[in-house]
Structures are given as C-alpha cells and as structure tokens.
Amino acid sequence: MYFDQRDSAVRFEWGLSGLEALAPMSDVVVIVDVLSFTTAVDVVVAAGGTVFPYRGSIHDLPSFALANDAQFVSPGRQVGAGYSLSPASLLTAPPGMRLVLPSLNGSTLSLFTGGVPTLAGCLRNAAAVARHALTIGSRISVIAAGERWPRDSLRPGLEDLLGAGAIIAHLTGNRSPEAELALGGFDAVQTRLPPTLARCSSGKELIGRGFRDDVEVAAMLNVSDAVPQLVDGAYVDATFRL
Description:
Blueprint: E1 10-14, H1 15-22, E2 28-32, H2 37-46, E3 50-54, H3 61-67, E4 71-72, H4 87-90, E5 98-102, H5 106-110, E6 118-121, H6 126-136, E7 140-144, E8 147-148, E9 154-155, H7 158-168, H8 177-189, H9 193-199, H10 201-208, H11 212-218, E10 228-231, E11 234-237
Parallel strand pairs: 1-7, 2-6, 2-7, 3-5, 4-5
Antiparallel strand pairs: 8-9, 10-11
Helix pairs in contact: 6-7, 7-8, 9-10, 10-11
C-alpha cells in the first residue's frame, strides 16, 4: 500500500513493477514509450489503423499476424527496410493498416494491464490522450516504459519522463509527488523538446544508428488527435468509438 499512490488521482511510475503496483488502483492506465512503441502506435492509429502489441516468440509472430489478418514487422528496426518499429517508417503506411508490433517494453506493458482500460500515450498525442483518460475515470496512472540496461535492469528514459509529463500537464486532480516530478521535467524543457530528445541518451543512440527521423517524429508535441485504446488485444482509435 506504500507504493500504489492511492491517495492521489494522478499517478506516475516506471516499468512493469510500477504498472503492477498502480494498475489495481486505477480507472485507466496510460503507457508511455516515446522511443518508440507508443509513438509508432500513434502514427498507425492516427491513420485509421490497428496495432496489435506482441510479446511472444519471434517464431510464432507470422502465425499470430495471420490469425489477426495483419502484417507484422520483426522486432527492432533496420535502415531502409520498410515498415518497422521506426515511427518514421510508418508515416507512409496505408490508411487502415493492421500491424503486429513487437516491442520489449511498450508491448509488454500493454499486455500486462489486466482489465484496466489502457491507452498508448506519447508527446504527439499527449493532450488528446489526457482528455480521453478523464472521460474514463479520475484515477489515472501514467506508466513510463523506460529502456533496459545490458544486464536487463530498468533504465529510466528521459524521453518517457517527458512524454508522461506532457500527458500529466493536461490531467485534472491531485497529483502524486511522482507525477509532480514528471510534470516538472516536462515544464522545464517543453519549449526545447526536439533538441532535448536529440541530446538524451536514447535519442543519441537512435541518431547514431541512423534513425534521426524517428527522434524528430517523436519530439512533435500535440500534433495528433488520435487516442489509441487497447480493445480486445489491439490498439484502435477510441475517438472513432464514441
């Protein structure tokens, strides 16, 4: 009970353990994986598409996609290799695309929220996701996915802190100290998001690997009105369901 932030309406935590602590006390959970799962989800869903988060065996990926009448991409990303976890690669995806998207962090969290309504948030759709979350309930938990260190421990990613803070900025209700910290981080750099993402560790890694466009796409603030909500195992635009 010490770690579930139950005395606050707006909460913030990191990773799977944070999700497990907060989800049971939540009306809605927002998953944030800015570089790049939830940004990729937003790009596809904003074009009327459907995204199936996937955390199973890579060997079962083709059959899972076939069973869901969807295309699939291999985990990770490759330069010039068509669609992938790269948000920039998905900007040219056809409207209505059905895509299976493996992701070590964002997909895993998406599939561990139980029966709690689950949204995919990022900088691009922060305001829209916050508005919709408030229509579901007042107890809102924002979960930053983070990254992994080589020994597989959680590496808090600045990009996810900022994405969470951008969403929290549009939420009403009393905030936990953890949520206040995320909001403060966002407030400090909200006018400098593109250079901040480019200079943070995750941004530098992607740029070094040839994916500068992904960082630029992810750093765009409130350019999307899409609200990806997990329905029957797939993210669809909740605004189409109203």
